[in-house]
Write a structure and sequence with these properties.
Blueprint lengths: L6 H4 L13 H10 L4 H10 L3 H8 L3 H10 L4 H21 L2 H9 L17 H15 L5
Length: about 140
């Protein structure tokens, strides 16, 4: 079993993030302010995907991500999408107790999700909720 990745770690560590983010409500102000664009590189490394693949999964144009990297900060909408992805990764890792298994599951077609990859659903709140619900069912042995 690998060490669990925290949201902060997946989003680039404490650089640019307030210390001790413990509750979802503490994340609200962080999302509203935006996070450092280094989070893009951090999440691509965690997921082992390209920036273009990340952009496609989150419905953020690749050119926009490149521009934000030059500017140094993501806007609130982009931040919300990256945080949503990180939360799903965190849940998948907890469910499968292994980051590699979590990555594989997120990138593989899933019958419970109409045959699409969980990663492809994370561009919307409803898609992300469906992925989280599926992970919950896996945790409880109800539906895999």
């Amino acid at each position: 079993m690998s060490a669990t990745l925290s949201l902060e770690t997946m989003l680039g560590g404490q650089r640019g993030l307030p210390p001790n983010l413990c509750t979802p409500l503490q994340w609200v102000s962080v999302i509203r302010q935006g996070i450092p664009s280094a989070a893009v590189d951090s999440l691509t490394q965690v997921m082992r995907i390209t920036q273009a693949e990340l952009a496609a999964a989150l419905a953020i144009p690749d050119r926009t991500l490149a521009r934000r990297k030059k500017e140094g900060r993501l806007n609130s909408e982009e931040t919300a999408k990256l945080v949503r992805l990180a939360r799903v990764i965190e849940r998948a890792e907890a469910t499968f107790e292994d980051i590699d298994a979590a990555r594989d599951w997120l990138k593989s077609a899933n019958a419970a999700l109409t045959g699409v990859t969980p990663l492809s659903l994370l561009d919307t709140d409803i898609g992300a909720e469906s992925v989280m619900d599926t992970l919950g069912r896996i945790e409880h042995g109800v539906f895999a």
